[in-house]
Amino acid sequence: VIIPEEEILDNASHISDALGRGRSMDSIPSTFTNGSCSPNSLDPDISPDEQEEKARLIAQVLELQNTLDDLSQRVDSVKEENLKLRSENQVLSQYIENLMSASSVFQSTSPNTKKK
Does pTM surpass 0.90? Predict the structure, then answer.
């Protein structure tokens, strides 16, 4: 049995959406399970080993999708933190610059006064 790629992607999208809403894999009918809700009722022409392999691959795809989603969220949070830290660095740099310009220790001395 060959499943068109568009159908696989469409089913993966529906599965991902349903899982995002808290539904379990068992409650999602799909082409992978011939429209049934049970992975045990796969196409009778497919051997139990093939059924097991399909179920394993589906679980692996879902796990990878979840991992990708987690990584994407992590990247977004790191970007936000980066922007926050850059802003704080700018404030601190300006503060240090203002302190240095206000302090006589950091002012340049004039070369007109010479010691004899």
Answer: no
